[in-house]
Amino acid sequence: MKLILSFLFAFLFLTASAQSTHRQYLSGEGLNHTVTWDFYCSDGNNSQRWSKIEVPSQWELQGFGTYTYGRWYKEKGVKNPSMETGIYRHSFKVPKTYKDHTVRIVFDGVMTDTEVFVNGFPAGPVHQGGFYRFSYDITDLLNVGGKNKLEVRVNKHSANKSVNAAERKADWWLFGGIYRPVWLEIKPKEHIGRIAVNASADGELQADVYLTGARRGYRLSAAIAFPDGSNKTEERFFTLADTASMYRINTRWKEVRTWTPETPNLYLLTMKLLDAEGRILHQHQERIGFRTVEFRPKDGLYVNGVKIVMKGINRHSFHPDGGRTTNKEISIQDVLLIKEMNMNAVRSHYPPDTHFLEACDSLGLFVIDELAGWQNAYDSTVGRRLLEEMVVRDANHPSIVLWSNGNEGGWNTALDKYFSCYDPQQRHVIHPWADFNGLDTHHYPAYLTGVGRFTNGYNVFMPTEFMHGQYDQGHGAGLEDFWANYTSHPLFAGGFMWAFSDEAVRRSDRNGQLDSDKFNAPDGIVGPYREREGSVYTVREVWAPIQFRQLYITPSFRGEFALTNTYLYTNLRDCRMNYRLYRYPSPLREETLSCCIDSGEVCLPSLCPGETGYARMQMPSCFWEADVLELEAFGPDGKSICNWTWPVRYAGDYLKREIPRSVPKQERASVLQDHDSLVTLSANDITVAFRKADATIARVQKGKEGVEVPLTDGPLPVGMKMEFTRYTVRMDGEDAVFCAHYRGGVDSIQWC
């Protein structure tokens, strides 16, 4: 009996598994999850001999070839150094159970020209383009049930000039190799190849179902699993009237929960192909979101009927330890960090990893997905194929609300019309940096750019790059002014800062040293390992979905805060807020930790997005004994939105209270000293030295031990001219004063 049950179980398992698509990885799935293949590199480090390499990876980070940054062509007399060829070899077995199935080999991303051989035979034409998924049907080349030999030849530099112009002359590291996973995709002979969906906010589902081997009288079924934990499903059936390779279905579900970045509701869609007797031949599953995207000219971008403003960042698929080889964990970490900064959108200069898009779907971010082209475009032949590969792979992600054709001049306008061929949602197409198709995406606009093309214009304005982290003194500098200016205009649809992270790579040829190619790559709001910079907290506050009217705590304060709900979809009644009151000891004491003297809840009003009202707190009896009031708000998901602080006791009153009991009078006296090249001011164990030549700070020291404080070499002018002319020094009562005089945007700066 046990033997019979075992055979029955095996039969049922194989029957059920035969209905689904199987994925057999030939490589690992990403950074820190790899498979070792044989490898030969033609030039550079460890070249011209067979060795081993981890797949997926970039071969430079594995110790092969030559590191090259994409701005090589800007240096006179320099020829393209990234000309290596890599040859990969790997053996694999295909189980006998895959007999009479269709088998495709899938490459999720290879840089750059790729030629594939299976058991000595070419799998198909050479693939050109480094950021795109491609595949070959290798059914007839396989030794099913036995050993198979795979050889992949990769040229780091493409034979196609337009591919090199679009991808290899760019502001990023140029790597080579199989950097995303490789797998076999196994399906029954009669199967669903892919689907392209348009799932609207009203519950309507239109799906283009691409079929192989389907016959008249076969049926399709569509079912969605509701995301409420109830395991509720609803299934619809459609009979095929012919043997067409594509069949369009239309149906509608009631009371669906829509997808937004604030409520990223996803449904598991299951499509089945059934024969005339009702047997399941194949099933296809993927997660979808019901939402409607509309671009309304001279108005704005709408999602589910709501006019949106995108608070965005530009991001590359990049990590110091893997180059462009990342993993699901990194994608989730990045999306969570982006959302922590109260951003709701992200743009990529090429199709990012699928797991990054899945994280944007499930955690909630708008996405602009881009056909690569850094200031140079693909030709029409290669470009159309790559465009198809991008849109076919990514069309069903609800997070994607716009398509982008190239970047900063890398637009092949002949390709624009083809986006709609593969996208049933007919999403809007933009040309970053251009005023195109009703959407002005002008890059790095000056504060007054809007006077000419925005304030007096009629096209929707959305700079796809602004607030450059390298040139604008950090992303937080000036953001509040820019944002207040732009959001005052009804045609503003948001913007995308440059960029998310520094792109320093850990060099395998320099003992693991991080290299950002001098000043080219360090322009992120976070470091290469996602270290937070100060601008993270500025952006988090400026883009917080709760905005306070400017407030000073005065004796008239009665616990009320005027605030505005700047969410797109969320009512403030679904959020909560707490207060904390702190006492802070003098920084001159040995004790440095603050003391929370009271805490409690703040009552938030019921405010729809865009509305203004009042939050209120019950002021405790100890309120005026505090130095600082802190508020912290939490979103409907329970995660912190932002922290805000106000001084209860201002500097003058605080110092009158703290300094007399912290420092003896004789130690509070100021000292002025004039040296050969420096002037120093000292008081309260703090010494600041100024250079006579330009009035910049040479050093700051604290305490009797002279601990160095890293606040030097300023002040520096930003956005204006300031020419140093002279300095003066004087004693003003007990205060020592150093005054620097300038010509230009600043008259003088006084230090005392």
Can you walk me through this structure?
This protein has 752 residues and is mostly beta strands. Helix content is 14%, strand content 37%. It is built from eleven helices and 51 strands. It has a seven-stranded parallel β-sheet. A seven-stranded antiparallel β-sheet has the order 37-38-41-40-39-42-43. It has a six-stranded antiparallel β-sheet with strand order 3-2-5-11-8-9, with no helix packed on it. Helix 3 crosses helix 4. It is globular and about 95 Å long. The N and C termini lie far apart (94 Å). Mean pLDDT is 92; it is low at 1-16.
CA-atom Rg in angstroms: 31 Å
Structural class: mainly beta
Q: Give the overall average pLDDT.
A: 92
Q: What is the CA–CA distance across the termini? A: 94 Å
Strand proportion: 35-45%
Major sheet size, sense and barrel closure: 7 strands, parallel
How many DSSP-defined strands? Answer: 51
Q: Return residue spans where pLDDT drops below 50 for at least 5 consecutive residues.
A: 1-16
Helix fraction bin:
10-25%
Strand order of the largest sheet: 29-28-27-26-25-34-33
Keywords:
mainly beta; 752 residues; disordered N terminus; 11 helices
Compact summary:
Helices cover 14% and strands 37% of the residues. The chain is mainly beta and 752 residues long.
What does the secondary structure layout of this molecule look like, with pairings?
Layout: H1 2-18, E1 22-25, E2 35-41, E3 50-55, E4 68-69, E5 85-93, E6 101-107, E7 110-111, E8 113-118, E9 121-122, E10 134-137, E11 147-155, H2 161-168, E12 173-174, E13 177-178, E14 182-188, E15 191-199, E16 204-212, E17 219-225, E18 233-239, E19 246-252, E20 267-274, E21 280-288, E22 293-296, E23 300-303, E24 306-307, E25 310-314, H3 328-340, E26 345-347, H4 354-363, E27 366-374, H5 380-394, E28 400-407, H6 419-422, E29 429-430, E30 435-436, E31 439-440, H7 449-453, E32 460-461, E33 466-468, H8 479-487, E34 494-498, E35 505-506, E36 514-515, H9 534-542, E37 546-548, E38 560-565, E39 576-583, E40 595-603, E41 612-617, E42 628-634, E43 640-647, H10 651-662, H11 665-668, E44 671-674, E45 678-683, E46 686-691, E47 697-702, E48 707-709, E49 722-732, E50 735-744, E51 748-751
Parallel strand pairs: 25-26, 25-34, 26-27, 27-28, 28-29, 31-32, 33-34
Antiparallel strand pairs: 1-14, 2-3, 2-5, 4-12, 5-11, 6-10, 6-14, 7-13, 8-9, 8-11, 15-16, 16-19, 17-18, 17-20, 20-21, 22-23, 23-24, 30-31, 35-36, 37-38, 38-41, 39-40, 39-42, 40-41, 42-43, 44-45, 45-46, 46-47, 47-48, 49-50, 50-51
Helix pairs in contact: 3-4
